[in-house]
Automatic annotation (TrEMBL), chains A, B, C, D:
The keyword Transferase applies. Belongs to the class-V pyridoxal-phosphate-dependent aminotransferase family. Its cofactor is pyridoxal 5'-phosphate. One of its GO terms (molecular function) is transaminase activity. Gene3D superfamilies: Aspartate Aminotransferase, domain 1, Type I PLP-dependent aspartate aminotransferase-like (Major domain). This is Alanine--glyoxylate aminotransferase family protein. PANTHER family: ALANINE--GLYOXYLATE AMINOTRANSFERASE 1, AMINOTRANSFERASE CLASS V. Transmembrane segments: none annotated.
Length: 394, 394, 394, 394
């Protein structure tokens, strides 16, 4: 027994890990099966196939047994060889970070970087290919979570494909909360996980890998094998006929199965719709209250996370503490370069329900007010509810 | 919903992953908390401290968010620098395997290898240091699971310490099932996990790291940072005041907490005693039945896994299938060089209860018999029960 | 699998059953033990003793294996004999209902009834004893849930004891959410359950029975035996030495154990405090918005349920549907005579957290507004938050 | 936290409550829903309909929110009126017990009683009707659990129907473990529950009631209403359009839903087959060991419970204690008149798997032996395994 003095949040509106759906929690308590038993091997294959149904791909997905950031590192290590020129697209902290991983392995790193409240312009990508037709790999973060902004993955993906390069997409905090799939954006490696919009636990990663990407990895002389960083080790592990290179995280696989059931049974479009509406209601409320969105334009604001600017006279930590202490609501701070500048309200999984926007706006507004900020809390609540009421009346 | 045709085992007597204790399954269904919330940070510190109570170390343990094999690779990567001469002790497949990881990073690999049904002799280690006083790191698998054999870690550890080298111990499948701790064997890196004798889920690792080992890693110019392979990234993450370098596997930490409660509340000595008795009863039954132990001497047979030789005229897979199909009992095959030569019966966690030895012996014997082998099944059952009855009557 | 089209509520703010605490849900998934095994018998005794710790009584509590309404019927059947004059105190639907059960068994029913938005005046009880000194049993509902009103149990209890009568108290929806115990009000039979303020499942009942009440039942020639209605059958069942007359509801006992741990570990006073603050904030918001409380005076409004009047031009079902459909919030209608006249907002167990009052007020106000009612929603939200902010700043 | 010194059984082979299936335990941890919410009402109806699928009846089943013994009492109270002549068939303690309940309400009790190791002969029933054509209600325990014996329900049911009487069948510990349904035996009230062969928790009851039985109850002037003993109160409660008369046990309904999924997805015939085989293997082993079956003939021995005679020189409690202490195996004693005379080994739900017969036989034999009894344990194990091997080889 742990006697922790800190109180658990009443409402977790973080940018992840997020509260899991009840059915996922139950699935996490399923018996731990022996990984080499035929039952578990058949179960694992069924889960890999279910991933691909959700991802709308043909091949069973790759399941990696650690959190998505590790899987992105492993993707860089596995994919990027010493002859590869990599174009890294950085519109935020996570995008920028990929460049550092890339640089460990690539021949040359080319980077497009925009201010962290803006999105990459596909024309910039087109221009980069014109300047550097030898770009072989392009890396993109679809939703740069520390900024709460979305990049135009479809348009960028079309450009990359046109030029014959490989595209790696980090869709960790967008897939499952909005309409994005590997096929939509011609992604060759598309990485996501259950711990964000899918409402599951954060210890496992789902990856869709194209045949072209497998070929590139197989040809990469530096691609790791017999390593936690290896994609190739796990290539065939989805098959019930094949052994696992390492022990899979059985409990996480049990949870992942339920995450996918939840998503597929509710219907992807229904899930996206409630994410979008929650975010729209939240943005409306924040703006009506006089709080500024971080995203330069509302068009690039994520439907799964609302990032708002920290008012000049306040610190982010004071606001976060006030929201937690007064109201039991947990929000997220920024990360790296956005740390201190913004606060993030997650709309992911089970809290991507419109009325949570009322909670977010009133708790955030209440916290600001208690810290002496003059904001119009009731205008915020009104605007939030107006969005919900309008949507539901349809 | 998955409609898997394969039936789940009724009794999982594998060498791991093993069935988890009911309280661990319940803990795995605890709410997923936001990792940056103060509640979770305090909880995480409490779990790291509880690990150290179980490990009987002073410092909070390092928790790594993948399975132990990955943590062993990461240990090699983090610890072994380009100037290090490494003595690798190989008495089995896992010990041998560590040499390959070591060779990626070390200056020179020195290896002592014994037949995989024997144990390392501490004198061999002493001799190695005499020949090569420049050995800087020694690596040892305490229980080489694919062989079901135990190495004399205490004696080897004393020798290593005497010579001033660092000792890395893989105690993944022995800690929690017998009397072994980092301090017992002067281990500088001591790796274990909840998915074996502790009766938990297999997706997380517990490591005790000595100050000397931390210093060595800090001085290693090749020690990875900002990587899933980095130990240094996580060094201070146990503290509730410090951020996590990556997202921890929240559900696995929830499970780990319960694993430790189970172990500490039952009492370590009580837990070891039932592991030892189960194994002793199983060995007695197998031998009485005419089945040969894999271990050259019973002294080195593990109290957490009984490995028995596959009779000459049979294949391991035929025996495993028969035991599963006829009786619903899952055993483990060998691995690598021991594959095909032996079958392993796990005595770990909730199945480390003496009467499971009756199940193991009668199912194994029944399977052999159904495959045409002439064995004396009832002698096996009698011998197994005699051990249990004798122990309980005390 | 059930494919139910109806959506689950996002927020259950009912007057019970209420959402259970996560630890209670986990406990409900504990293994089902054999009731005659010594382990379960010892566990059952420990739970009965833990009940008495919570109830602040000396004797282990009586646990009955159905919901509290059944236990109240059984109390009437077991306690009230053919020679008993019963004074029934009716300030609401549940109080009135007890009179019907009483009348099946008693010699004569004397009743004090007040309008269902008022409380019993202890002086009325004093007067009744003066008129009818032969009153032997008094029955009182402490919190008449269908009205959301509290009766002065302490004062009434003192009067009843003074006159030597037995007092039966229904504290089903007040115990655990406010300061009331059997000793406080001299209750001879005090009935409560885990499904309301304690945040558990509703299928079991906890009863404190005084020695005087046991004696009265033992002397009652009509007290049932070998029956689900019998209290006497279960009198000694708490003891690990005694058999169970019927099979106990093992899963409910597992849940009850966790309910009590939650309550006792958090600390009763802390639990009451958050119930009271949530209700106060809710009442403030409702009134500021122009919604009228059902209770005649705020002093008798329950800290565990806020009952508000249905505006004249609207139906309760329209409001309930709007709150559920627009916002995912489930409230409760009235019961019996209060049905259609009021709506109830529960503040029980895990939702007895102040910020839920913001949810209640904004959802209730939003529903009214969508139905064309002119109310000042923002004044409601402001008033609710003002109460919370004031309390937390202390 | 409870620190119970008694150890939980490792193997629960009781006659119930039995260990629940893992999926049932998980379902018991589902969120507690508000019973008046449309979601729960629709869910409840779906569960009532799923019961009827399992029971192979047309109408949704009646779900009662306490354990089956209470539901049998309630059936007697609801069905048997002051003008009814009741024929009670007593082949065991439970059958005999129903007569006492019947006698509280009936005009006259006619009883056929046979020794408690025998079954009712249908001809006796035919003869009874000849003698007493005014018999209006017949009551039968299909599996008299305290004896482990089965009555010929089909034949008796045909006779009862021929004579126009109503038949009440207690199938609590047979339904779900063998081929018996209300339609098979013309039952008018057929009572069972999830806590025995269905592998669930014991706090709820499933009843199939025929139209004829409902009419009889409706016409019974003494049938209780507004009471926990009333069937009529709950008649329409299955419908999502109708309110609940009392609060249903939400958690138990959640568990019941999973119990039915388990049964229907595995396939009733498959479930019965493994119950039958387990019992057959157990009987073979016990007899080979020299232990005598309680049932006069093997034909009437239950496929869900094996009752064996306590050897003359021993006490049942000594055997039960030895099996628990030495091997962690919990068996059941007898009840009432069979207490002390027999020990019962349950084959129900998840332990109705053939290899559990090996556990039962070796633990029972081992216990006898440790108490000084001369029995041939190995002959028992051999005979048990021979039955399993023969069945699996088919």
């Amino acid at each position: 027994m742990n006697h922790i003095r800190e109180k658990e949040p009443i409402f977790t509106l973080s940018a992840g890990p997020v509260a899991a759906y009840p059915r996922v929690l139950r699935a996490l308590s399923s018996p731990i099966q022996y990984d080499y038993d035929a039952y578990f091997q058949a179960f694992y294959e069924s889960v890999a196939r279910k991933c691909s149904t959700a991802l709308r791909t043909k091949e069973p997905a790759l399941i990696l047994h650690y959190e998505p950031a590790a899987a992105i590192e492993a993707a860089a290590t596995s994919l990027i060889g010493p002859d590869d020129v990599v174009l890294n697209l950085a519109s935020g902290v996570y995008g920028k970070g990929f460049g550092y991983w890339s640089a460990r392995y690539n021949k040359e790193l080319v980077e497009i970087e925009v201010p962290y409240n803006e999105a990459i312009d596909p024309q910039q990508v087109e221009d980069a290919f014109r300047r550097r037709p030898d770009i072989r790999i392009v890396s993109l973060v679809h939703h740069d979570t520390p900024s709460g902004t979305i990049n135009p993955a479809r348009e960028i993906g079309a450009t990359v494909r046109k030029h014959g390069a490989l595209l790696l997409v980090d869709a960790v905090s967008s897939f499952g909360g909005m309409d994005i799939h590997p096929g939509d954006c011609n992604a060759d490696i598309f990485i996501t996980g259950p711990g964000k919009c899918l409402g599951g636990a954060p210890g496992v990663t789902i990856v869709a890998v194209s045949d072209r990407a497998w070929e590139h990895m197989a040809a990469n002389p530096k691609a790791p094998r017999a390593s936690v960083l290896s994609y190739l080790d796990w290539r065939d592990a989805w098959s019930k006929e094949k052994p696992f290179p390492f022990t899979p995280s059985v409990a996480e696989v049990n949870g992942l199965d339920a995450v996918l059931d939840q998503y597929l049974e509710e219907g992807a479009e229904n899930v996206w719709q409630r994410h979008a509406l929650t975010a729209k209601a939240c943005r409306a409320g924040m703006q009506a209250m006089g709080v500024k969105l971080w995203a330069k334009t509302e068009e690039i604001a994520s439907p799964t996370t609302t990032a708002v600017r920290v008012p000049e006279s306040l610190s982010d930590s004071a606001i976060l503490s006030a929201a937690k202490d007064l109201y039991g609501v947990a929000f997220s701070a920024g990360r790296g370069d956005t740390l201190g500048k913004l606060i993030r309200i997650g709309h992911m999984g089970p809290v991507a329900e419109p009325f949570y926007a009322v909670i977010a706006v009133s708790a955030f507004g209440g916290a600001l007010r208690c810290l002496g900020q003059k904001i119009d809390l009731t205008a915020g609540v009104e605007a939030t509810m107006a969005v919900i009421d309008a949507a539901k009346k349809k």
